[in-house]
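Incident log, structure service

09:12 report received: a user says their structure output differs between two submissions of the same chain.
09:20 pulled the input from the user's history:
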Amino acid sequence: MSPAAAASRGARRGPAVRAREAVVRRTGVAAAWSSDRTRAVADALALVKLDGYEQRMPAKMRRAALKGVLSAKQSAGELRVVEGFALDEIKTRAFIEHLDAWDAQGKVLLVLAARDETVERSCANVREVRVILADSLNVVELLEADTVIFTRDALTRAQEVYA
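09:34 re-ran on a clean worker, output below:
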């Protein structure tokens, strides 16, 4: 094929083909396409990823959202602050007894200051419990939880990080 013919052929390519070629140029990965429809969907997704439509939320706005959700949980009585855990060994039953003592209902978000393997493994089999570190608090998990339990150390750590 002559260079002029190749250039004219490139000019007739559609935006989906040009997007796929851009993905291959940027990532160096060429995918095997099974059908035209799959190719079109993948090309549309590649366009979205290339254009980068995600938006970063400013840190002040994230902090304000966290404070708002925590205030709403506190006023609704869904926020508990406990001294800590007295789990000597990894036992799910002992963990459930702690939850019952704290009157934790529904989905429970347990916020710890640092990783605690005993607590994490004790609640691993409890379906409605999620453990998160105070450094990793986010609005989505706070909103999904029916009860939020902070340890005293986690609360001070969250105040240090998000103040």
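09:41 both user submissions now match this output. Likely a transient worker issue. Closing.
09:42 reviewer note: The longest helix spans residues 59-76. The mean pLDDT is 79.
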